[in-house]
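Case study 2.
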Amino acid sequence: MDALSQWGPALWGAAGEGLILCAKILAILAPLMIGYELAKAYGVFQRPWPRLRPALGWIGLGPGSLVPLLAGLFLGLLYGAGILIAMSDDQGLGRRERLALAVFLVTCHAVVEDTAIFVLLGGSALWMLGSRLVLAVGLTVVLARWWKRPGG
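Prediction:
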């Protein structure tokens, strides 16, 4: 009976801390999702493409990959994958471009969301963001170069 009386306060404390963490995560995610939907509705994703064309073209991505790429970077893999699937036909994304985009997003998804959450938990934004971005670009470039080879 004495052990059970000690568990009650610990469980309530853990539940309270868990709810506080959930509220903090919600405070990060809700504005990101609302901002994404507003940006999409006002055509914000179409504006940066001319400036991003050389960089994205270098890693094997074309103009149709911009919206799924930005959704995946800002909001996560599932949201980005859903948009990628929905836009594959609409934007005319080829098989290779879909694969390159998937490789990039698997390696480097939700960089804004995850970085904010890890910083909230005491992590380093530089290590979290930098290592994922370098790995994603490196893998996608290697994949794009491999495809350009005659046997690739």
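The mean pLDDT is 79.
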